[in-house]
Specification:
Layout (H helix, E strand, L loop, with lengths): L9 H67 L9 H74 L40
Helix pairs in contact: 1-2
Amino acid sequence: MTIGAKITSIGALREFRLVVAKYRSEATAALIEAESELQRTVVWLRHDRLAHWTRELRKREELLVRAKSEMYRNVVQSDTDGRAGVDQKKALEKAKRQLAEAQQKLEAVKKWIRVLDHEMVLYRGEVQSLNGMLESDLVQAEARLERMAHNLDEYAQLVSPDGGGPAPDVEAPATAVPPSDSPSPSAPASPADRKPENS
Protein backbone atom coordinates (compact mmCIF):
# COMPACT_ATOMS: atom_id res chain seq x y z
CA MET A 1 0.00 0.00 0.00
CA THR A 2 1.35 3.41 -0.97
CA ILE A 3 1.10 6.16 1.62
CA GLY A 4 1.30 9.74 0.46
CA ALA A 5 0.69 13.24 1.69
CA LYS A 6 -0.48 16.37 -0.02
CA ILE A 7 1.79 19.27 0.94
CA THR A 8 0.16 22.63 0.31
CA SER A 9 2.61 24.86 2.23
CA ILE A 10 6.30 24.12 2.56
CA GLY A 11 6.62 27.27 4.67
CA ALA A 12 4.36 25.66 7.31
CA LEU A 13 7.06 23.05 7.94
CA ARG A 14 9.62 25.76 8.62
CA GLU A 15 7.16 27.64 10.83
CA PHE A 16 6.56 24.46 12.82
CA ARG A 17 10.32 23.93 13.12
CA LEU A 18 10.62 27.45 14.59
CA VAL A 19 7.86 26.63 17.10
CA VAL A 20 9.70 23.45 18.12
CA ALA A 21 12.96 25.38 18.45
CA LYS A 22 11.29 28.05 20.59
CA TYR A 23 9.74 25.43 22.87
CA ARG A 24 13.09 23.66 23.24
CA SER A 25 14.84 26.93 24.07
CA GLU A 26 12.25 28.04 26.63
CA ALA A 27 12.00 24.62 28.28
CA THR A 28 15.80 24.35 28.51
CA ALA A 29 16.00 27.82 30.06
CA ALA A 30 13.28 26.90 32.58
CA LEU A 31 15.12 23.75 33.64
CA ILE A 32 18.39 25.66 33.99
CA GLU A 33 16.66 28.32 36.12
CA ALA A 34 15.04 25.67 38.32
CA GLU A 35 18.39 23.94 38.84
CA SER A 36 20.04 27.28 39.65
CA GLU A 37 17.32 28.12 42.16
CA LEU A 38 17.79 24.76 43.87
CA GLN A 39 21.55 25.29 44.02
CA ARG A 40 21.14 28.80 45.43
CA THR A 41 18.79 27.50 48.13
CA VAL A 42 21.20 24.71 49.08
CA VAL A 43 24.13 27.12 49.26
CA TRP A 44 22.06 29.55 51.33
CA LEU A 45 21.10 26.83 53.80
CA ARG A 46 24.51 25.12 53.99
CA HIS A 47 26.83 28.12 54.01
CA ASP A 48 24.72 31.02 55.24
CA ARG A 49 22.01 29.80 57.60
CA LEU A 50 23.93 26.84 59.00
CA ALA A 51 26.98 28.98 59.76
CA HIS A 52 24.81 31.80 61.14
CA TRP A 53 22.88 29.68 63.60
CA THR A 54 25.99 27.74 64.63
CA ARG A 55 27.61 31.06 65.58
CA GLU A 56 24.44 32.23 67.27
CA LEU A 57 24.26 29.02 69.30
CA ARG A 58 27.79 29.49 70.64
CA LYS A 59 27.15 33.18 71.33
CA ARG A 60 23.93 32.46 73.23
CA GLU A 61 25.55 29.67 75.21
CA GLU A 62 28.12 32.22 76.36
CA LEU A 63 25.34 34.67 77.23
CA LEU A 64 23.61 32.02 79.30
CA VAL A 65 26.81 31.21 81.16
CA ARG A 66 27.31 34.91 81.81
CA ALA A 67 23.73 35.34 83.04
CA LYS A 68 24.14 32.40 85.40
CA SER A 69 27.37 33.90 86.74
CA GLU A 70 25.64 37.22 87.33
CA MET A 71 22.84 35.42 89.11
CA TYR A 72 25.25 33.50 91.33
CA ARG A 73 27.26 36.63 92.14
CA ASN A 74 24.10 38.47 93.08
CA VAL A 75 23.02 35.62 95.38
CA VAL A 76 26.39 35.59 97.13
CA GLN A 77 26.41 39.35 97.53
CA SER A 78 22.74 39.66 98.44
CA ASP A 79 21.45 41.10 101.68
CA THR A 80 19.90 39.24 104.58
CA ASP A 81 17.11 37.53 102.56
CA GLY A 82 19.62 36.04 100.09
CA ARG A 83 17.32 36.52 97.10
CA ALA A 84 18.73 37.38 93.69
CA GLY A 85 17.74 40.62 92.05
CA VAL A 86 14.81 40.81 89.66
CA ASP A 87 16.98 42.08 86.82
CA GLN A 88 19.34 39.11 87.05
CA LYS A 89 16.40 36.69 86.98
CA LYS A 90 14.98 38.36 83.88
CA ALA A 91 18.36 38.31 82.16
CA LEU A 92 18.76 34.61 82.94
CA GLU A 93 15.31 33.73 81.57
CA LYS A 94 15.95 35.77 78.44
CA ALA A 95 19.29 34.01 77.86
CA LYS A 96 17.56 30.63 78.20
CA ARG A 97 14.86 31.57 75.66
CA GLN A 98 17.44 32.90 73.20
CA LEU A 99 19.51 29.73 73.51
CA ALA A 100 16.44 27.55 72.94
CA GLU A 101 15.57 29.60 69.85
CA ALA A 102 19.06 29.17 68.41
CA GLN A 103 18.91 25.41 69.02
CA GLN A 104 15.53 25.17 67.27
CA LYS A 105 16.70 27.24 64.31
CA LEU A 106 19.85 25.19 63.89
CA GLU A 107 17.92 21.93 63.99
CA ALA A 108 15.41 23.31 61.46
CA VAL A 109 18.22 24.30 59.07
CA LYS A 110 19.80 20.84 59.32
CA LYS A 111 16.41 19.21 58.75
CA TRP A 112 15.67 21.27 55.63
CA ILE A 113 19.12 20.57 54.22
CA ARG A 114 18.38 16.85 54.46
CA VAL A 115 14.90 17.29 52.97
CA LEU A 116 16.19 19.43 50.10
CA ASP A 117 19.00 17.00 49.31
CA HIS A 118 16.45 14.20 49.05
CA GLU A 119 14.05 16.25 46.94
CA MET A 120 16.84 17.29 44.57
CA VAL A 121 17.66 13.64 43.89
CA LEU A 122 13.99 12.95 43.10
CA TYR A 123 13.66 16.07 40.96
CA ARG A 124 16.73 15.29 38.87
CA GLY A 125 15.44 11.78 38.28
CA GLU A 126 12.07 13.13 37.14
CA VAL A 127 13.49 15.66 34.68
CA GLN A 128 16.16 13.36 33.24
CA SER A 129 13.84 12.09 30.49
CA LEU A 130 12.73 15.64 29.69
CA ASN A 131 16.36 16.74 29.44
CA GLY A 132 17.01 13.85 27.07
CA MET A 133 14.10 14.86 24.87
CA LEU A 134 15.22 18.50 24.76
CA GLU A 135 18.87 17.72 24.08
CA SER A 136 18.37 14.89 21.60
CA ASP A 137 14.87 14.21 20.28
CA LEU A 138 13.84 17.80 19.59
CA VAL A 139 17.20 18.68 18.07
CA GLN A 140 16.80 15.76 15.66
CA ALA A 141 13.18 16.77 14.96
CA GLU A 142 14.27 20.30 14.03
CA ALA A 143 16.93 18.97 11.67
CA ARG A 144 14.47 16.54 10.10
CA LEU A 145 11.85 19.23 9.53
CA GLU A 146 14.45 21.45 7.86
CA ARG A 147 15.57 18.56 5.63
CA MET A 148 11.95 17.87 4.68
CA ALA A 149 11.37 21.50 3.75
CA HIS A 150 14.61 21.59 1.75
CA ASN A 151 13.73 18.40 -0.15
CA LEU A 152 10.25 19.69 -0.88
CA ASP A 153 11.72 22.95 -2.16
CA GLU A 154 13.86 20.99 -4.60
CA TYR A 155 10.90 18.84 -5.62
CA ALA A 156 8.75 21.94 -6.19
CA GLN A 157 11.41 23.32 -8.53
CA LEU A 158 11.32 20.11 -10.57
CA VAL A 159 7.52 20.01 -10.98
CA SER A 160 6.75 23.74 -11.03
CA PRO A 161 5.25 25.33 -14.19
CA ASP A 162 8.69 26.61 -15.13
CA GLY A 163 9.97 23.08 -14.98
CA GLY A 164 7.22 21.71 -17.17
CA GLY A 165 4.95 20.12 -14.59
CA PRO A 166 2.20 21.14 -12.14
CA ALA A 167 3.08 22.81 -8.85
CA PRO A 168 2.90 20.45 -5.85
CA ASP A 169 -0.20 22.08 -4.43
CA VAL A 170 -2.12 22.10 -7.75
CA GLU A 171 -4.05 19.06 -8.82
CA ALA A 172 -4.90 18.53 -12.48
CA PRO A 173 -8.62 17.73 -13.06
CA ALA A 174 -9.31 14.14 -13.98
CA THR A 175 -10.51 13.69 -17.60
CA ALA A 176 -11.56 10.61 -19.51
CA VAL A 177 -9.93 10.43 -22.93
CA PRO A 178 -11.37 7.84 -25.36
CA PRO A 179 -8.95 5.55 -27.15
CA SER A 180 -7.64 6.97 -30.43
CA ASP A 181 -8.85 3.99 -32.56
CA SER A 182 -12.50 4.13 -31.43
CA PRO A 183 -14.96 6.58 -32.99
CA SER A 184 -16.52 9.33 -30.99
CA PRO A 185 -20.03 8.43 -29.79
CA SER A 186 -21.48 11.59 -31.27
CA ALA A 187 -19.83 11.30 -34.75
CA PRO A 188 -22.05 9.99 -37.58
CA ALA A 189 -21.12 6.68 -39.12
CA SER A 190 -19.18 6.80 -42.35
CA PRO A 191 -20.82 5.54 -45.58
CA ALA A 192 -18.60 2.52 -45.55
CA ASP A 193 -19.79 1.59 -42.12
CA ARG A 194 -23.49 1.82 -43.02
CA LYS A 195 -25.34 -1.41 -43.69
CA PRO A 196 -27.10 -1.62 -47.09
CA GLU A 197 -30.84 -1.22 -46.86
CA ASN A 198 -33.11 -3.90 -48.23
CA SER A 199 -34.90 -2.61 -51.30
